[in-house]
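Batch manifest, entry 17 of 40.
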Amino acid sequence: MAGRVSGVRSVLGVSPTEPDCFRTISDAIAAAADGDVVSVRPGTYTEAVVLDREVTLSGAGTAGEVRIESTGDPVLRLSAERATISGIVLVHGGGEAAVDLTGGVLHAEECTVSAGSGIAVAVRRGAELRARDCRIGNDGGAGLLVFDGGLAELRGCSLTSIATTAVVARAGGTPKLVDCVIADARGAVLVADRSTGVLEDCRVERIGGIAIVLEADSRLTLTGTTVSDVDGVALLVGAGSEPVLRDCRVERTAAQGVVVVQGASAVLERVVVESAGGYAVHVVEGASITLTDCAFRDSGHDGVLVADAGRAVLTRCAVAGGSGAGVVAEGGSEVEVSDTHVSDTAGAGLVARGGARLVVSGGSARGCATGARWETGASGELVGCEVVDNLGDGVAVLTDEPVRVSGCRVDRNRGTDLRGVIDDASPGAPRPAVEWERAVPRDRPWLLYTC
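Output type: structure tokens
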């Protein structure tokens, strides 16, 4: 039943029919020593396997021809310091977890977990999962649960057909996914309770609810990842959490692209949000966001809305198209916009209202319903900007609060170039051009304008 390898490691065969083989995997593991290989011949094995020693469990033949099935108890558990499994299909139903890791390190390669369980794979109590080219599915619950200090690193894996959330991190769990696919799940990723997650070069698609959620002081880094075809919000950040997104795309969401609430914060660099059903970015409840070199296109509502004492800083961004305004500050929020270009929005390119402060430097607003607009209660600045070719007014200052407009080009707008900044020009009168200057109007001492 055992063959000697290099005089040290043994290979123990398992087959339901072949001679000189163990009939069950569990019997082979019981006879193995640390470092041995348990080679499983093609077939279906109905048993619950416990890896309680440092062995390699390998499926012989083509990957997928070896199936281990169980109901109730996990189909695979790890209690040894380390073990390896490759080329095995694990099938489970009717229990809490299909694969349960409570300690040690499990290396998995070219394996499939097909579950109808509460959890497909659970990694807890400081255990580690390192998986490559594996597939996880669960029509009964969650995909991967990493909690209680567990760690999971998946490379080239897929988590598909998940009834609830594909990846869940709680209580200090740390999942890392590289070059993975999450698809056809109710939710893609939940990181909560002071946990930390990483997604690199992943695809998240066809999600039936909110795709990615952070809450309870958690962190998540997404790099080179695409989130698309989401029936809810792509990314929801709350309760003191902070994600960092770099070189990512968010496409075709039924609701907002990114929502930040409850005093949380987010950092987006070189992120594209396209065809969001609602706002591309929505910041409320004292939350904050930093947007650098980002693009927001064709939103179903405003491109970026900051309200309810939120804060936002946009640098070298672009907002194009959409059914609402480009960048909106309201409800006591503070928004700083620099070197950002807003174009072709159905509403105003830049708008502040309701006690908000909007400060804009550089960049442009063109092809919008109105270029830039400060409404009742709003304040701010417009410095060194181009506000041209808009379908209505260029710059409209309709507030009694201080607004400074300086060093701008405001020209060729179909409405009044400078409404509230200067009196409307009489028909046929020349419009203000670059370098035009006017003294502060006596009836509006709050206004400073030099263009």
